[in-house]
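Annual report, structural modelling task.

Input specification for the coenzyme A complex:
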Amino acid sequence: MTYENLLLTHENNILLVTFNREKALNALNTRTMQELNYLFAEDLPTRKDLKGVVLTGAGDRAFVAGADIKEFLDLDNKGQNMAQYGQDTFFLIERFPKPVIAAVNGFALGGGCELAMACHLRVAGEKARFGQPEVNLGIIPGYGGTQRLTQLIGKSKALEFCMTADMIDAPEAYRLGLVNYVVPAGEEVNMAKSLIEKIGTKGPIAIAKVIESINAYFEDGVDGFAYEIKAFGETTKTADFREGASAFVEKRVANFKGE
Ligand code: COA
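The model returned the following structure:
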């Protein structure tokens, strides 16, 4: 697949994905969702040297201002399929074994806020604004917003957020635990990249198992504690663990190979 709406830039094995529909405030139309799905389902799993992925929006106004409302006009009976595809796509991000970080440089509304929440970490610029304004249109969040918002900020605030459609600024998002960092505008991507560099010095299998195990907490019918025991056992069998423990004893920096 060729990428028309996603701009991909590689640097030091970090992939920067820019949602590139600035005139529509980077709204997620069907084509963009297909490209995002393909990227995480087909393209990135083949890139073994990848350290992690940063998502951001083109321009200085928006990260992603939601699903493309102009495509909603003929949605009718297709709503459920649309939500299913969006959720499947965002699960690919949430379950990706390497860190995926949202660098939120402006509006993160509706599907944009849901996209940021599906990432493992969120860095907000000072101009970032977050909201789930779907009820303004007479619909509800469909890409996992009601669930991940509740996970991240709790039921009370999630209900307020989704029922009032109010936007919040970056400091408030930080206070609520919706974002991990607030940085000066324009510094979002650099901060996200430096987090990926830091995580890249750790054992890659361990990082993948951290992601899996923490996700397991939220999986229906999965005992997260049991999942953690199994994942811990798997990490103790790796060459990375032998290297990490030896490096500690020998007082040197570990050289992890992801094996
Ligand atoms: N879908 C499609 N187009 C969108 C969009 C979306 N979610 N959000 C913004 N745009 C488009 C606007 O239609 C406009 O295009 P136009 O110039 O061709 O008319 C352009 O982006 C700029 O937006 P505009 O509304 O003129 O900017 P603003 O500064 O006045 O307002 C927002 C910015 C983000 C507050 C406003 O665009 C908005 O409320 N967007 C919708 C957010 C939303 O409800 N998202 C959830 C969808 S389920």
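The longest helix spans residues 79-94.
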